[in-house]
Amino acid sequence: METVTDKDELAAHPGPKQYVLVALVLAVATAMEVGWYYLDVPHGLFVALLMFLAVLKFSLVALWFMHLRFDNSIFKRLFVTGLLLAMAVYLIVLTIFGALKWPLLVGFTAFLVVFLPIFLIVRARGRQAGPG
Amino acid sequence: MAVHAQPSEHSTHTSTGLSNAKLGMWAFLGSECLLFGALISTFLLYRGKSLSGPTPKDVYDIPYTSVSSFVLLMSSLTMVLALAAIQRGDHPKLRVSLMATALLGMTFISGQVYEFTRFVQEGLSVRTNLFGTSFFVLTGFHGAHVTGGIIMLLSLFGMSLDGRLPTEKAEAVELVGLYWHFVDVVWIVIFTVVYLIPTGK
């Protein structure tokens, strides 16, 4: 069985300055979302851009504020399993019932295409850094 | 560079070496993804299928909701600052951050109550049409979660005032923080999928 040490669990968290920086990025991303809302862009592009910003904000909060980037990977696995399961199940349901019109489908696909590489990159970096 | 906060003093006398409470919280949050996924999917399934108005375009006030979203987003910052404060043993800052988070949460909920009231006045209730049903159930569930979070935050604030929240119990703040941030990330998705996309040009 894999031995999980306190080092994994007690990994150093960032400090207030980093948190404020992350919050600034979140605020700018929200402002961009609202700004795009008033711009005259094709709906498919609009949806993809919004999905990208939502993924960015979601990831920043989960990785930095919820410390998934720094804590033991077991927590990340628990959460990501639920998240991916939900996304997969409901994407299938929505597709079967024809609720996903093509701009939304493009947006959701972009969501998955962007989210998964970010997750994999962060995971790979975490492994390179090693525990603690 | 970072202030390397002293991590919470978790009980590690478990088979995994990790706090069972924290594991349980993450498992709970994973399951919550399925709950909110179901509610958001229901909203999307019923999208555009209402036989009568009002529709999202008739009732939404995007600038107003954007401010609410910003308020909730910033409450995540104060929450994580509360955790950093207790891990440093800085209890006055912990109390300020906890109260700030609770107040921001209350501002968000007040905004939601105002929004719901305005929608009802404009003729959209939970029984008006499919949009009303799915919208009120989804955002109502989210609002109930935020309200639960506010109660937990105020409880932590009270415990801290009583001196019952020493640095060794930082995990309690961390767990409430995880819940609070989850409620925030759910709103990030709701704001995009329920508010911005259906009414975008």
CATH class of chain B: Mainly Alpha
The number of helices of chain A is 5
How do the helices and strands follow one another from N- to C-terminus of chain A?
A: HHHHH
Order of helices and strands of chain B: HHHHHH
Largest sheet of chain B: none
- What name goes with the CATH superfamily of chain B? Cytochrome c oxidase, subunit III, four-helix bundle
Under the CATH scheme, the architecture of chain B is: Up-down Bundle
| Mean pLDDT level of chain A | 79
Proportion of helical residues of chain B? over 70%
| Principal-axis shape of chain B | elongated
Distance, first to last CA of chain A? 19 Å
Structural class of chain A: mainly alpha
Regions of chain B with pLDDT < 50 over 5+ consecutive residues? 1-10
The fraction of residues assigned to DSSP E strands of chain A is under 5%
How many angstroms does the end-to-end distance of chain B come to? 43 Å
Give the low-confidence spans of chain A.
1-11
In percent, how helical is the residue content of chain A?
over 70%
- CATH fold name of chain B, please? Four Helix Bundle (Hemerythrin (Met), subunit A)
Number of strands of chain A: 0
The tally of structural domains of chain A comes to: 1
Describe this structure in words.
- The complex is a heterodimer of chains A (132) and B (201).
- Mean pLDDT of chain A is 79; it is low at 1-11.
- Chain A is mainly α and 132 residues long.
- In chain A, helix 2 (16-38) runs antiparallel to helix 3 (43-65).
- The two termini of chain A are 19 Å apart.
- Chain A has one domain.
- Helix content of chain A is 77%, strand content 0%.
- Chain B starts with 19 loop residues before the first helix and ends with a helix.
- The longest helix of chain B is centred in the last third of the chain and has 32 residues, at 130-161.
- Chain B is elongated and about 55 Å long.
- Chain B has six helices and no strands.
- Residues 1-10 of chain B have low confidence and may be disordered.
- In chain B, helix 3 packs antiparallel against helix 6.
- Helix content of chain B is 75%, strand content 0%.
- Chain B has helices at 20-45, 56-59, 62-88, 91-121, 130-161, 170-199.
- In chain B, 46% of the residues are buried.
